[in-house]
Design a protein that fits this description.
This protein is an alpha/beta fold. The chain has a domain at 251-402: Up-down Bundle (Four Helix Bundle (Hemerythrin (Met), subunit A)). 53% of the residues lie in helices and 10% in strands. The protein contains 15 helices and 11 strands. The chain has helices spanning 18-32, 38-53, 62-71, 75-91, 104-115, 130-142, 165-174, 190-199, 228-236, 251-267, 271-275, 285-309, 323-326, 334-354, 374-402, and strands at 2-7, 14-16, 100-102, 119-122, 149-152, 181-187, 204-206, 221-222, 314-315, 363-366, 370-373. Strands 5-4-1-6-7-8 form a 6-stranded parallel sheet, sandwiched between helices. The longest helix is centred in the last third of the chain and has 29 residues, at 374-402. It is globular.
């Protein structure tokens, strides 16, 4: 069993006095943005952070959401303020280190995890840019281990923030939904770390005292740093609970994260790479995205409408294997297809959210799976999404290796 540890940063690996750190950092940041009055800057920043947390779009990264709300002006304004923000983090942010301190137990924990060949994701709330978070990792005494981390969750790369369970699902998507791998979350906050990670299907270890709330992933635990590795050994000995057995699983978070993962993938892909097949008989990235788009538009949405409107309808299997050729997916624009996929998926999510109290009551007769309820049908889509995310990453890796 392989292990990937998602580890929170602030108050888990780095101690800081938030009563000083947060207002001071905002004051200094606003001071560096000379084109905006200080009072306006603070109110705009508060609105921009709130927008990131309560976003209503998937097609933008958190950084894009932040800039759009914070600047609320022309593209030239955004470019200038973006430059000011970058300059502040490059040249002045280091002064904030004086309001932080290392956590020796956290340093030792990370060193031991690396020694055990565990992979680590720095799963900090992605409301800061990469430069700021890299500095905070260094302040935590982990500068020598920076290249050992798989990635840090940042506002430039992520679409969701804590405590949205979709943030944790997006981490799983960025990891390509690894098989034969146990992903766990370690953090100091029940509300920001453990509860939402559990709703994403990730067992969490709470660095805190007290009783864990009911309804968490059955493998969740709490204690001190000394208890983390015994806990990991214990859960590695247990079979992973099936998602359908975890009534606390947030299925809508899983559904809305898939197009966000593909949005991230598309940003780093050229048109040629996106249309290339690793083998002539396999799909390209564009074909995978078009397939997911059309599955939602032409299969999933109409299927759920039928289930909600009829009494125990019969659902027949639809063979989509020829669509890639019949519909000439390789000739489509991948970025446009990804945006259409997002639109279709949001329509599907809105429909399911409207009928959420019927997920376990409304049933259907599936031609392959037999009697199912709405929650089962949603889980089929989640499993299908995971398969194609794995396929997309594998496809790009192989295509890039031969070009």
């Amino acid at each position: 069993m392989k292990n990937i540890l998602c580890v929170d940063l602030d108050q888990t690996l780095l101690a800081r006095n938030d009563n000083i750190f947060i207002p001071k950092s905002i004051d200094e940041l606003c001071r560096s943005i000379r084109s905006m009055p200080d009072g306006q800057c603070k109110s705009q920043m508060e609105a921009a952070i709130k927008k990131m947390i309560h976003r209503d779009s998937i097609s933008q990264t958190l950084y894009e959401v932040f800039l759009s709300e914070f600047c609320d002006g022309t593209e030239q304004d955004r470019q200038k303020i973006a430059a000011d923000l970058s300059h502040y983090y490059d040249t002045e942010y280091h002064a904030m280190q004086q309001y932080t301190s290392t956590i020796p137990e956290g340093i030792q924990f990370v060193k031991e995890a690396i020694r055990k060949n565990f992979k680590i994701v720095i799963a900090t709330n992605p409301i800061y840019p990469l430069n700021a978070l890299q500095q905070r990792v260094q302040w935590a005494g982990l500068a020598d281990m920076m290249d050992q981390f798989l990635f840090i969750t940042t506002m430039e790369d992520f679409h969701f923030t804590k405590p949205d369970p979709a943030y944790y699902v997006e981490i799983l998507g960025r990891l390509a939904w690894p098989e034969d791998t146990r992903v766990v979350m370690i953090g100091d906050s029940l509300e920001m770390d453990i509860i939402p990670a559990s709703r994403a299907g990730i067992p969490g270890y709470w660095l805190g005292d007290g009783l864990l709330p009911d309804g968490l992933n059955p493998f969740c635990a709490n204690g001190t740093y000394d208890g983390i590795f015994p806990w990991i050994e214990q859960i590695n000995e247990q079979p992973e609970a099936a998602p359908s057995q975890n009534t606390g699983l947030d299925l809508l978070a899983h559904l809305k994260t898939t197009p966000a993962v593909f949005d991230s993938i598309c940003r780093s892909v050229t048109e040629k790479t996106g249309c290339s097949r690793p083998e002539i008989s396999e799909w390209s990235l564009v074909e995978i995205i078009c397939h997911l788009r059309d599955m939602d538009r032409d299969v999933n949405i109409s299927r759920f409408v039928e289930v909600f409107q009829q009494e125990n309808p019969f659902i027949s299997h639809i063979d989509t294997s020829s669509w890639a050729e019949d519909r000439k997916y390789r000739e489509e624009n991948g970025h446009e297809a990804a945006l259409e996929f997002i639109d279709n998926r949001l329509r599907l999510i809105d429909l399911l959210a409207e009928h959420q109290d019927e997920w376990y009551e409304k049933t259907a007769r599936h031609s392959i799976f037999g009697p199912v309820c709405v929650a089962d049908l949603i889980q089929f889509i989640v499993t299908h999404d995971r398969m194609h995310i794995r396929q997309a990453y594998d496809t790009l890796e192989r295509v890039r290796s031969i070009t």
